[in-house]
Structure formats: C-alpha cells, structure tokens
Design a protein that fits this description.
alpha+beta; Ribosomal Protein L30, Chain: A
Length: about 100
C-alpha cells in the first residue's frame, strides 16, 4: 500500500479596497446658511457643527465643497438625502 501526500496550496486572496467617492455640496442662491448647516448635520451624523459650518462656507465662497469621502452606497445615500432637502449635491470618484 502506498501513502499519497496531498499538498494544500496556499491561496491568498489580495483584497483591493472598495473605491471611494466624494460627496460634493454645490452653492445655491435659495437656501439660508443656517438651513444648509442643519441639513448637513441631519444627513451626515458624523459631522460636527464646526465641520458643517466650514463645509457650508466653502460651498458659499468657492462654489463647491467636499462633504465626505466614503464607499459608493453611503455616498449615494448622502447625496440623495441632501438633494431631498433641497440642496445641490453630486458624487464623484475619489482619485
């Protein structure tokens, strides 16, 4: 009787990090600054009041501001939620 040796090949899978997306807030001439800050705080719970104010001011002065960088699904959720509150928001790949 012969004994066969079975070798296990080690299969290591290399996981690529999920692509990340930037949620952008665009300036508009319709909503008050206070409303924009409140909307940001409501939609993105991880933001602090000073961060929300900074984002609103950046959008107001530069025309667009980065709200958050995250995976696609939450990015779509945040952007759609901001639009649902009457703000102008888009997403783009983070490169």
């Amino acid at each position: 009787m012969s004994v066969e040796t079975i070798e296990k090949k080690s299969t290591s899978t290399i996981r690529k990090p999920a692509p990340r997306y930037r949620v952008l807030l665009h300036n508009d001439d319709f909503n008050s600054m206070e409303y924009v800050v409140e909307a940001l705080l409501k939609v993105v719970p991880s933001l602090t009041m000073p961060q929300a104010v900074d984002i609103m001011m950046q959008a107001h002065t530069a025309g667009v501001a980065l709200v958050i960088t995250c995976a696609l699904e939450p990015a779509e959720f945040y952007s759609e939620s901001l639009r649902g509150l009457g703000l102008v928001s888009t997403i783009e790949p983070d490169e």
